[in-house]
Amino acid sequence: MGSCNRIITNCMRLFLPVVMAVHAAALSACNPAPEKHGGSVSESGVVANVHDRLSYAERFRISRQKGFSTLLVMPGQGTRTDTLRYLLLPEGKQLPSGYAGYAVIRTPVKRVAVFSTTQIGFIDLLGESERIIGVSRGEFVNTPSVKRRIADGSITEIGMPFSPDLETILALDPGIVLAPALPPSRNAGYQTLEQSAIPVLVVAEWLEASPLGRAEWVKLFGALFGKEDVALQRFAEIERAYRKIASLTGKVQSRPTVLSGLPVKDTWFVPAGGSYVAAMLRDAGASYPWIGVQGTGSVELDIEAVWPVALEADYWLNPGTVKSLEELYALDTRFRDLPPAKNGKVYNHNRLVNTAGGNAYWEYGVVRPDLILSDLVMIFHPGLLRSNGIKEKSFMFYTEVK
Length: 402
Known about the structure:
alpha/beta; Rossmann fold; 20 strands; 35% helix
């Protein structure tokens, strides 16, 4: 029981920011979203050309106007269609008329405070990590350049998303605060920042169901930091690498059955068929038992409903935070009976976890789905990459649970 409690505590620590973000997004009630494709219509009635055409991301849109851009972020879930509106206004430009209700972000952003390590991954990919002056919890950070600046005092902790340290943030005076959810209109603390001319931008990449959709948020970060061309180039490289690997698995004859996740007490949360995890498994050439289940999040099942499937699985991925089979068996001795455990085919995405529990998989794996996909293909189809001219290196994020 003590071991089980430790695992549950670790899971809560690692995923609490995501859980908070889900609840926060459900609270928002902003203006209805405009049409998702083509041009967007400003309040002055001018149809804007799409600035960065998006191929995968569905939760934001950037449109170029005369001398500035508009940014729409759609963090709504279920039947909600919330839309948050921002103006990306170059430094020194006069505020245009006709955009009441838009939060103003001066670009390029010089100083940024972040509440999620995933946001650090996007910023670092663009070579702009020196712009970061505030982070939520420094001990969870893995990015070397950011860790160094935390150690020398250049970066300050700013609290958690639901309890931001307003005094510290105001003293830092960032050009923008990035939050994983929680629109400023729904929290008095964030309203204080807005009233002090510090915009809070909701970054909802975690709501994208497509691996490349999440990675495509790098284009938004490019617009913030004046690195649009760099963002387009980096994303094109990631997309090309990802699609090349996925094209190889589309030809495989044998697709191993994969079990994902870990039960908590008697409940097993499995990724739905339209989820990020299911998409990654499909592109890695795996057979996923719940691919036909509708939804983009997780589905709550009784362990009895999952067990017959588990007994037929070839591989088991992402079993909580466990690092050894002994630790896994301590949670439930029945796990010894599962074929992946018997055959040495249990893998977890915790190869790069620091001593505080910060996982690089979420920090810069989100913006590099090609590296995650490479790991999975090497697990499910050893030698496939090498036989097609792609160098097989050691795993980046995954490790075998022994």
